């Protein structure tokens, strides 16, 4: 009996010991660590025992009943007039019939206005928006230094008026009540800025270029990775403010509080800022934009131009066009009370982000800020987007190349309809094309060409644009094709070629002259290449422009076969969007010029596409190289072409054409392998 | 049996000893152990219960047991909301301090029950939804229980519905919070503001500087960049499970399902219905429902009864009209059904409009234009409607679905304002997962032709073939655009030749010694690379002519002439006119020998092809131009274990590079110049090896391996290559820019 008890005693005893050790040890350990170092468990929000039984914040009946008091009717609401919104202060019905037309008040000699305002008005007058008839106008524009706007005959409380106010600190800021007029204001302050109604502009000097403007000149997309980031304080003149390896914090330099900074002039005259300072901008990765001074937004433009990532303070001002431009993709925004973190914040940026930011600065500069014209058009397009809200640009159209001014929402608001966004949208162009054949006054019906083109497996339809004096052949006279053949009677104008005909059902257009000679395999290969480059012109015959030093003007030739910058639209693939852009974005005088002169329409189309893409066109091989459309050989015709190039260049404000020296051939083109292995073997037969 | 026998034998010998003093000993021992155990037990649980009882954070408790706080009638009331508040004037960012993760810390006040002098409660203690919201915050990364480290404070006083509370007393309760401080950095959540008859669009409780996440803001009460506009939560979200409806035509074009519409609006809608017949459906409250049927879940049109919200899935567009309040719970139901909301509520600040792009998911119609709405909607193409439907559903899933998603979106928006440089991008907020997956955003998206003057850096990877290496260096140095030559010496056992032995070339030559013999060393982003363009070249590629290399990068003969032109041309035309293959395609791999991947139907896997094909999908990096950014991507951003795999197998680094570039840019490679047999002195590289059958098998394995790591086949197949304009044209050779191309 005793032995039995002892037999149990041992295991029990040891079990107790074990328990003691197990339970006591962690506790002892806990005691050994000072309380401050102990890992703390988070006291979280309690899980209530009765949380399932808690009442809902609103009864189901109450939510759906929500009785509407008389005050919620439209008229009652409107009478409250608490501030200006597009819905309350703008009469959109004026814009329904004629579209977005802009009237500019004629400025008499008695009204002295500044040069900047002159440029603004001139830009509008030369644009496609302009109308001279106030009856059909949707928007009335007047310069900020025009006196007594209230006295204008059509003022009407300022409704549908837009005032360009480009001189911060002028009399307009001294208690002028714009009423229902929109203010496009340089450097607005939050107190005066009516969000969603006013437009924020950048400040720019008198000497700003009217159109074109210098292109972005970024040399290195990537700053050298390892070096510490450089921050440049824009607007400081002397060179010792700039330290390659350190971050310059403005408060270090000025030693003043943020309150006192508002009225501090940053630098008086920036138009004289010279290349030394500019060069330093180009070498910097980040540029600090001092806030609240009159020229803040001008410094911003300088930084954008130099590809220097702007560092903005989040307080106090509306960045230019902030309604449509997502500044987070091109600038570093930081709260000024967090400035001491700036260095680590900048150094913590992943290289991919820095790369993207730098590219975005260049894109923004080129798309919206490089000239007065672009700034003015962007302002007008922002207003247009507000009026036609259902057909306004999606975010990507404003914030990705080629930018909102070159992506027309009147064409479409869907990304997949444009040639630029296939990758971002995750789609691809449709795999068929429409052939558009222009039959001019001296041409025969292009029967053979129709057959060759219709033989392509990618051809969806053939459109014959009949611009001949004689009537088109009867229905039965045309060759039998498997694809539909449609004859369009043109208005016998050259610009008809690029009219956006609603019958065009595919993304790709093959533009042809009746005299062009192409084989099916040439068409097939060119189309396959176009599918890889849907935003460019892909064609066969090329020309080149060059700078003629003796005459100091541009010249145009077919005598430089090693390079090219223009692909003739007598035989070329391009996206149908360019028809729309050609017809609706170019001003009427430019299109009239094309109608008057012969053979200039190709050049204008190439200018337009190059302006959009910033890239050269693409050349593909053609079997019969020397049987081109006979180009005008006599000197007058040559002079005319040269004239065209110069007039277009001056209208665009710069030369957008880009040279290329390559041709895209089939992979096995003229290689020493059996012809039977080659897919496009017909391209090589002469 | 055996054991018991043993015990029996040993037993009697021990018993006598036990009997006397040992018993006492055992008992003492036993009690000591027991005492120790009890002491430990008490020690273990006692202090804890003391600590936490003060904070009543013991897990299981009832809401009814929370401490009661009596508010004296004369306790202070905060100022009314300050309409001029902005983040930089009313918000104290210093409290948020520096946080390496750029994440704000949020504190939740503990729950109390507030009563007035007469013991009458000020409001419901807490509603189910507000409890869910606070639980979600508490479970998130934003949460802290340390009031001293918090940046944002969320009172547990429930103000979701203004109707359920007494305004003055609630304000007094707010004012006595521990860190109230005029409401600085306090965040209130309110979904149903206002009271009859005026229905203010923001919470009427005086709250001084506190941030308001409100459900019915109008532009006039919303403090832009300070308040947050949130949705009105619909409890149907949790009750009804509506699976996402695929694209395709729906029965009704336009539907109105709200019950308490203003008569004027209802008559407008009915006029639309009369005009457009079947495609418009205006529903109203059912009048003759049988007992026990929830009237909120049914809608009627004449005698027809419809299930709500299921009926919303039958329509393309659903009207969301303002009622007494601007914010409507119906918006949430409509989004859940994937119906595109047509929002008719002038001045309404849409939920999360600071970050969400409502243009993609809704149509906003001014109240005045209600009668014209049908034609506006009809002008939207079907494809776009389907995208809007998908977008609407995604907004609901991500930001409307639960109190948790509403709370998280609100905190993230405030977080983005405090750390704007680390804010979430537009795409992350707005792109549905399917779009994020299918879209490609090229890291080199700017159509910029790099200036010609920059030139390129050649990187030669070598092990020990010095003689061949020197020949390559001599050849490459003839290319005019070369600006620097980098030799990556991958042999750790042997020193590179002395300086005097290297060929004398006109550009700087630098030798980099590596720590390990790895193939990835070729793609390391060396600091020495100062140009954008990189030419990767093997130490045995000597069959390419200088013309061919130069063409791969840019133009030679025109350069001088055009340089002069440039200098004198107008300043606006500074971009160099000459451009060559890589410069025209700086975001692509531009290489000489091309390869192809094919789908092997028999084996159902990818196959590597190097025969004479009409297509190209890869170029060998034995000699190729590319942007130096890809070196960075290869070294630091290569997905999965591909980099290690390549180093371990000593093969396929070029295929990996092709995959990487095609995946991030979505573009095909460019093959330059005609096909030629690559002849090499030792014939071990590229083609020499490629002929080997096992080599081909291994390369195919690589493609399959990489395709599975990338989860897709990023390579793009093209049928073209780049030649000089006049290549093989009937044209005098000496007038061509690049005559020496394609010769063997």
Automatic annotation (TrEMBL), chain A:
Signal peptide: 1-24
EC numbers: 2.4.1.224
Protein function: Glycosyltransferase required for the biosynthesis of heparan-sulfate (HS). Transfers N-acetyl-alpha-D-glucosamine to the nascent HS chain (GlcNAcT-II activity). Appears to lack GlcNAcT I and GlcAT-II activities.
Homology family: Belongs to the glycosyltransferase 47 family.
Highest classification ranks of the organism: Eukaryota, Metazoa, Chordata, Craniata, Vertebrata
Ranges where the record places region Disordered: 236-277
UniProt keyword annotations, A-Z: Disulfide bond, Endoplasmic reticulum, Glycoprotein, Glycosyltransferase, Membrane, Signal, Signal-anchor, Transferase, Transmembrane, Transmembrane helix
Gene3D superfamilies the record matches: Spore Coat Polysaccharide Biosynthesis Protein SpsA, Chain A
Subcellular compartments: Endoplasmic reticulum membrane
Zinc-finger listed as a keyword: no
Lipid bilayer topology: Single-pass type II membrane protein
GO terms classed as biological process: heparan sulfate proteoglycan biosynthetic process
Pathway in which the depicted protein is active: Protein modification; protein glycosylation
Biased composition (Basic and acidic residues): 251-277
Protein name, per record: Exostosin-like 1
GO cellular component, one term: endoplasmic reticulum membrane
Organism: Phascolarctos cinereus (Koala)
Location, primary (coarse class): endoplasmic reticulum
Gene Ontology molecular function: any one: glucuronosyl-N-acetylglucosaminyl-proteoglycan 4-alpha-N-acetylglucosaminyltransferase activity
PANTHER family: ACETYLGLUCOSAMINYLTRANSFERASE, EXOSTOSIN GLYCOSYLTRANSFERASE 1
Domain named Glycosyl transferase: residues: 433-669
Catalytic activity: 3-O-{[(1->4)-beta-D-GlcA-(1->4)-alpha-D-GlcNAc](n)-(1->4)-beta-D-GlcA-(1->3)-beta-D-Gal-(1->3)-beta-D-Gal-(1->4)-beta-D-Xyl}-L-seryl-[protein] + UDP-N-acetyl-alpha-D-glucosamine = 3-O-{alpha-D-GlcNAc-[(1->4)-beta-D-GlcA-(1->4)-alpha-D-GlcNAc](n)-(1->4)-beta-D-GlcA-(1->3)-beta-D-Gal-(1->3)-beta-D-Gal-(1->4)-beta-D-Xyl}-L-seryl-[protein] + UDP + H(+)
Exostosin GT47 domain location: 97-348
Keyword Glycoprotein assigned: yes
TrEMBL record, chain B:
Source superkingdom: Eukaryota
Keywords: Disulfide bond, Endoplasmic reticulum, Membrane, Transferase, Transmembrane, Transmembrane helix
UniProt topology in membrane: Single-pass type II membrane protein
GO cellular component: endoplasmic reticulum membrane
InterPro entries in alphabetical order: Exostosin, Exostosin_GT47, GT64_dom, Nucleotide-diphossugar_trans
Residues in Glycosyl transferase domain copies: 456-554, 579-727
GO MF annotation terms: glycosyltransferase activity
Coiled coil: none
Record's subcellular location: Endoplasmic reticulum membrane
GO annotation, biological process: heparan sulfate proteoglycan biosynthetic process
Transmembrane domains' residue ranges: 24-46
Domain called Exostosin GT47: residue spans: 101-380
UniProt similarity note: Belongs to the glycosyltransferase 47 family.
Protein name, as recorded: Exostosin-2 isoform X1
Gene: EXT2
């Amino acid at each position: 009996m005793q032995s039995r008890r002892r037999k149990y005693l041992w295991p029990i005893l040891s079990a107790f010991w074990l328990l003691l050790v197990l339970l006591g040890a962690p506790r002892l350990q806990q005691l050994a660590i000072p309380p401050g170092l102990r890992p703390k468990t988070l006291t979280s929000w309690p899980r209530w025992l009765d949380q399932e039984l808690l009442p809902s914040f609103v009864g189901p009946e109450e939510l759906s009943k929500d009785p509407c008091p008389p005050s919620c009717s439209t008229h009652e609401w409107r009478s409250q007039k608490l501030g200006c919104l597009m819905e309350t202060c703008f009469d959109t019905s004026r814009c329904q019939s004629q579209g977005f037309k802009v009237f500019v008040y004629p400025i008499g000699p008695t009204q002295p206005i500044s040069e900047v305002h002159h440029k603004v008005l001139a830009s509008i007058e030369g644009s496609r928006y302009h109308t001279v008839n106030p009856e059909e106008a949707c928007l009335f524009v007047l310069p900020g230094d025009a006196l007594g706007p209230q006295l204008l005959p059509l003022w009407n409380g300022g409704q549908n008026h837009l005032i360009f106010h480009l001189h911060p600190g002028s009399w307009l800021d001294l208690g002028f009540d714009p009423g229902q007029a929109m203010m496009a204001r340089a450097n607005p302050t939050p107190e005066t800025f009516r969000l969603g109604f006013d437009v924020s502009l950048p400040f720019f000097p008198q000497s700003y270029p009217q159109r074109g403007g210098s292109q972005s000149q970024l040399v290195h997309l990537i700053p050298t990775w390892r070096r510490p980031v450089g921050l440049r304080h824009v607007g400081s003149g002397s060179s010792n403010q700039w330290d390659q390896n350190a971050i310059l914090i403005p408060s270090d330099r000025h030693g003043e509080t943020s309150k006192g900074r508002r009225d501090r002039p940053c630098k008086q005259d920036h138009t004289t800022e010279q290349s030394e300072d500019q060069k330093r901008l180009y070498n910097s990765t980040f540029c600090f934009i001092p806030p609240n001074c009159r020229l803040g937004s001008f410094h911003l433009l300088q930084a954008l131009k130099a590809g220097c990532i702007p560092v903005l303070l989040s307080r106090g001002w509306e960045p230019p066009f902030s309604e449509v431009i997502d500044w987070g993709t091109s600038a570093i925004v930081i709260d000024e009370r967090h400035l001491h973190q700036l260095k680590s914040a900048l150094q913590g940026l992943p290289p991919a982000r820095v790369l993207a930011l730098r590219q975005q600065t260049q894109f923004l500069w080129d798309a919206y800020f490089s000239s007065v014209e672009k700034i003015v058009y962007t302002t007008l397009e922002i207003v247009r987007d507000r009026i036609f809200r259902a057909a306004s640009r999606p975010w990507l159209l404003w914030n990705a190349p080629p930018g909102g001014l070159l992506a027309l929402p009147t064409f479409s608001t869907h990304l997949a309809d444009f040639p630029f966004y296939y990758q971002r949208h995750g789609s691809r162009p449709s795999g068929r094309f429409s052939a558009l054949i222009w039959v001019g006054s001296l041409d025969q019906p292009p029967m053979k060409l129709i057959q060759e083109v219709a033989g392509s497996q990618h051809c969806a339809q053939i459109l014959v644009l009949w611009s001949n004096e004689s009537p088109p052949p009867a229905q039965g006279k045309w060759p039998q094709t498997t694809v539909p053949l449609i004859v369009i009677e043109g208005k016998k104008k050259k610009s008809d070629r690029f009219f956006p005909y609603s019958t065009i059902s595919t993304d790709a257009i093959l533009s042809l002259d009746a005299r062009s000679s192409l084989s099916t395999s040439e068409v097939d290969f060119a189309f396959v290449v176009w599918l890889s480059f849907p935003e460019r012109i892909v064609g066969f015959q090329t020309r080149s422009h060059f700078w003629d030093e003796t005459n100091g003007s541009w010249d145009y030739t077919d005598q430089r076969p090693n390079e090219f910058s223009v692909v003739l639209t007598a035989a070329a693939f391009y996206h149908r969007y360019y028809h729309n852009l050609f017809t609706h974005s170019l001003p009427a005088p430019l299109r009239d010029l094309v109608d008057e002169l012969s053979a200039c329409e190709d050049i204008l189309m190439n200018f337009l596409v190059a302006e959009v893409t910033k890239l050269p066109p693409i050349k593909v091989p053609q079997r019969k190289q020397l049987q081109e459309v006979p180009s005008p050989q006599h000197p007058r015709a040559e002079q005319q072409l040269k004239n065209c190039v110069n007039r277009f260049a001056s209208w665009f404000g710069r030369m957008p054409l880009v040279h290329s020296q390559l041709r895209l051939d089939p992979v096995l083109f003229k290689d020493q392998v059996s012809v039977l292995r080659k897919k496009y073997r017909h391209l090589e037969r002469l | 049996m055996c054991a018991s026998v043993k015990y029996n034998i040993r037993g009697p010998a021990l018993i006598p000893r036990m009997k006397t003093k040992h018993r006492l000993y055992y008992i003492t021992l036993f009690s000591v152990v027991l005492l120790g155990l009890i002491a430990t037990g008490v020690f273990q649980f006692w202090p804890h219960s003391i600590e936490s009882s003060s904070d009543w954070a013991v897990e299981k408790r009832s809401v009814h047991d929370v401490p009661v706080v009596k508010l004296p009638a004369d306790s202070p009331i905060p100022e009314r909301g300050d309409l001029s508040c902005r983040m930089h004037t009313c918000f104290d960012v210093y409290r948020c301090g520096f946080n390496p993760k750029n994440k704000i810390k949020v504190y939740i006040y503990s729950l109390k029950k507030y009563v007035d002098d007469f013991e009458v409660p000020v409001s419901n203690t807490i509603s189910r939804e507000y409890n869910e919201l606070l639980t979600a915050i508490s479970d998130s990364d934003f949460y802290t229980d340390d009031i001293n480290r918090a940046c944002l404070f969320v009172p547990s006083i429930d103000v979701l519905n203004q109707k359920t509370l007494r305004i003055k007393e609630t304000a007094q309760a707010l004012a006595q919070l521990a860190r109230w401080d005029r409401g600085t950095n306090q965040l209130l959540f309110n979904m149903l503001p206002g009271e009859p008859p005026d229905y203010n669009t923001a919470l009427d409780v005086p709250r001084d500087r506190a941030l308001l996440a409100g459900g019915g803001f109008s532009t006039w009460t919303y403090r832009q960049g300070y308040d947050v506009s949130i949705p009105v939560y619909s409890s149907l979200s949790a009750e009804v499970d509506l699976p996402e409806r695929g694209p395709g035509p729906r029965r009704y074009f336009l539907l109105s399902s709200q019950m308490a519409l203003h008569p004027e609006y209802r008559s407008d809608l009915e006029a639309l219905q009369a005009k457009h017949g079947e495609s418009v459906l205006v529903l109203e409250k059912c009048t003759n429902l049988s007992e026990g049927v929830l009237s909120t879940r049914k809608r009627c049109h004449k005698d027809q009864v419809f299930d709500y919200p299921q009926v919303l899935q039958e329509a393309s567009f659903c009207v969301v009209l303002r009622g007494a309040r601007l914010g409507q719970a119906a918006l949430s139901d409509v989004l859940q059904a994937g119906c595109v909301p047509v929002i008719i509520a002038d001045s309404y600040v849409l939920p999360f409009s600071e970050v969400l792009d409502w243009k993609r998911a809704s149509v906003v119609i001014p109240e005045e234009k209600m009668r014209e709405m049908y034609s506006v909607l009809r002008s939207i193409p079907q494809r776009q409607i389907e995208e809007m439907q998908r977008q609407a559903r995604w907004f609901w899933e991500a930001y409307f679905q639960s109190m948790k998603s509403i709370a998280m979106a609100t905190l993230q928006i405030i977080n983005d304002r405090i750390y704007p440089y680390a804010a979430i991008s537009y795409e992350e907020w707005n792109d549905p997962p399917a779009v994020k997956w299918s879209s490609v955003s090229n890291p080199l998206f700017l159509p910029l032709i790099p200036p010609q003057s920059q030139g390129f850096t050649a990187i030669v990877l070598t092990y020990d073939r010095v003689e061949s290496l020197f020949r390559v260096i001599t050849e490459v140095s003839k290319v005019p655009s070369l600006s620097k030559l980098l030799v990556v010496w991958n042999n750790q056992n042997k020193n590179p030749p002395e300086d005097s032995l290297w060929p004398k070339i006109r550009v700087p030559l630098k030798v980099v010694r590596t720590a390990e013999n790895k193939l990835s060393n070729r793609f390391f982003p060396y600091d020495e690379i100062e140009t954008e363009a990189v030419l990767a070249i093997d130490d045995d590629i000597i069959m390419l002519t200088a013309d061919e290399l130069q063409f791969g990068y840019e133009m030679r003969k025109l350069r001088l002439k055009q340089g002069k032109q440039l200098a004198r041309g107008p300043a606006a035309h500074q971009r160099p006119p000459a451009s060559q293959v890589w410069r025209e395609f700086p975001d692509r791999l531009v290489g000489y020998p091309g390869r192809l991947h094919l789908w092997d139907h028999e084996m159902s896997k990818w196959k590597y092809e190097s025969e004479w094909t009409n297509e190209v999908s890869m170029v060998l990096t034995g000699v190729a131009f590319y942007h130096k950014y890809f070196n960075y991507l290869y070294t630091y951003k290569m997905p999965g274990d591909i980099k290690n795999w390549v180093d371990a197998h000593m093969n396929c680094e070029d295929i990996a590079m092709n995959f990487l570039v095609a995946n991030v840019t979505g573009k095909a490679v460019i093959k330059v110049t005609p096909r030629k047999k690559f002849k090499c002195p030792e014939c071990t590289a590229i083609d020499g090896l490629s002929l080997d059958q096992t080599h081909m098998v291994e390369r195919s394995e690589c493609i399959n391996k990489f395709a599975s790591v990338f989860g897709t086949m990023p390579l793009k197949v093209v049928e073209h290559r780049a030649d000089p304009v006049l290549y093989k044209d009937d044209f005098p050779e000496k007038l061509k820019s690049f005559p020496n191309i394609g010769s063997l």
